[in-house]
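SAMPLE LOG
Freezer: B-3
Tube label: C17
Construct: single chain, 348 aa
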Amino acid sequence: MGTGFEVGADTSGTQQGTVGSALGADSRPRASSTAPYQRLADSDRGTGGLSLADFLGYFSLGLGLAEVLAPNAVARIIGVKEPDDTHRRTMQLMGLREISSGMAILTSQTPTKAVWSRVAGDAIDLAFLGKTLANPDNDRGRTIFATANVLAVTALDVMCARELSQQPRTATRKRAEQGIIRTRNSEAVREPVAEVYACWRNFENVPQFMRHLITVTDIGDGRSHWVAKAPAGREVQWEAKITAERENELIAWKSTEGADVYNAGAVSFREAPGGRGTEVRVELEYDPPFGKLGSKVAMMFREEPGQQVEDDLRHFKQVMELGEIVFSDATAQRGMHPGMPPTSPPKL
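STRUCTURE (predicted):
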């Protein structure tokens, strides 16, 4: 018993069908419809391998701290039965190398060179293990087991370094090499384009739905002054100027010189498919104050700008469609808190 899929009848009246109609040329979206999304995907290519690189960075930090703080214990684990001062100093030097490699990976937006440096470090580790294995007074079983583990990590290092090295030179990758992070988010709002654009264009409305902003003041001539919340109860501020504007279509901005945090971006407005109102797309690039590592720490508390934009777009949708922001217990109170209703109205 088989299952057949019909593509449909051709103009000659004969049936041509071995593939599902959903895959047929007549059922595919027009190239003009998919082209904008393909350009977005192409411009973001070049970020592959970063997750593995981050894992290797954290692994380096953990291993390095163990070698620095407990050199004799690590030496015994790899088969040295009676570690002496030379073994202890060697372990600590190798630990410092691991820590520096881990920090280099975690603080770089494009850690290709840092990962290749780990490959070189793996070669040194293998040479040391070979010397340990050659000494008959050591525990060769432990040394062989340690060597197998180092070889496995070396394979990961080489795979990650090659993947990072083969990434195409896209706009996202070029900016990342300068320490700049780019992020994109979009949301469909069930309101006409003109109304959505008008609300966003009045920048003094923005703190109503962006919880990390304190005030935005329009100072005229396409410039505005922004004050925002920062981690640890701090505040950051900057002036921004409009760099491009097309009514009901696009607003682009960039922070001026002297800003506490460099940022630039654009918000575009277009009719959403299927008459679903307006598609709002935000593109943001920024220079995190404490580099890539600071950005990752901020992600743990959902304070990273890319995450904030995602939340803010959802708030904007609620403001436009409902006139207010709908709070759940999780959004009203961040982190661990008692399971009871708040005694005062929640604030952004």
